[in-house]
Design goal:
It is a single chain. The chain has 249 residues and is an alpha/beta fold. The protein folds into two domains: 112 residues, Rossmann fold, CATH 3.40.50; 124 residues, Rossmann fold (3-Layer(aba) Sandwich), CATH 3.40.50. The protein is 34% helix and 22% strand. Strands 3-8-7-4-5-6 form a six-stranded mixed sheet. A five-stranded parallel sheet has the order 2-1-9-10-11, sandwiched between helices. α7 packs parallel to α8.
Amino acid sequence: MKIKSILVSQPAPTDEKSPYHELARKFNLKIDFRPFIKVEAVPAQDFRQERVSILDHTAIVLTSRNAVDHFFRMCKELRLTVPEGMKYFCVSESVAYYVQKYIVYRKRKVFIGKQTFGDLLDVIKKHKDETYLVPCSDIQTSEIPLMMDKAGVKYTNSVFYRTVASDLSDIKKLEYDMLVFFSPGGIESLKKNFPKFKQDKVAIAAFGATTAKAVVENGYRLDLEAPMPEAPSMTGAIEWYIKREAKKK
C-alpha cells in the first residue's frame, strides 16, 4: 500500500529542519501531529501518602524530561532544598543537558548513559553505595525496577506524574495510511478514543520494544518497528518502509 498520509502521535516539531518536514517533502506526504497522551502531575498531597522521603536518597535516576520536570516540581511543592551533593544519573545526554534548566551543572555530579536504561545501569553499578530515587510515571515499564533489583542497588521507585489519554473526540475518523506511536500509553489512547477503529490497510508503526509489544497485545497488526539497524530513527524507519513498499509493485 502506498503511504500518502501519516498521523504522528506526538506534538508537532517546532524546528523547521525537523526530519519529519524533510520526509514530507521528499515523498510528498501529508503528515499530521497530535499527542495521544498527556502528562498530569501527582499533587504533593498524594505524594506524601506514599511516605517517600526524597532527602533520604543520595542520587536521582532521570529517564526523561518529564522525570526531570516533575522531580524538581515536587521538591518545590514540598519546599525541599535539594542538597548540593545530590547526584543525577541521566539516561542520555539530552536528559542531562535538560537538567541544567534546574541546577548549576558544574557544581553537581551528573552521570550519563549512552541512550538506553541498560547503558545507564552500567554506570549505576559503579556507584553501588548510593541510595537511588527513580521518579517515574504510573505506566513505567517493569524493565527498570527488574534491572535495578538484579543490579543489587538500593533504590525507591516512586510515581511523580501520571500518563493519561488525550481527548481526541474532535477527530471523527482516523483517515490515514499510517499511525505512528511512541509509547504503550499511545496505544491505550487509541483504544479509548477510537473503540470502533478497524485497522484494515492502515499501517501501524511503533518506536521501541514496549510500544511494539503493546500494539500486538491490544490486537493490532504491527507493520513497522523502530529503531532498526539500518534506521535508528522513526523518520528513517518510515522512509525505509515507504521504499520497501514501492519495490513490491
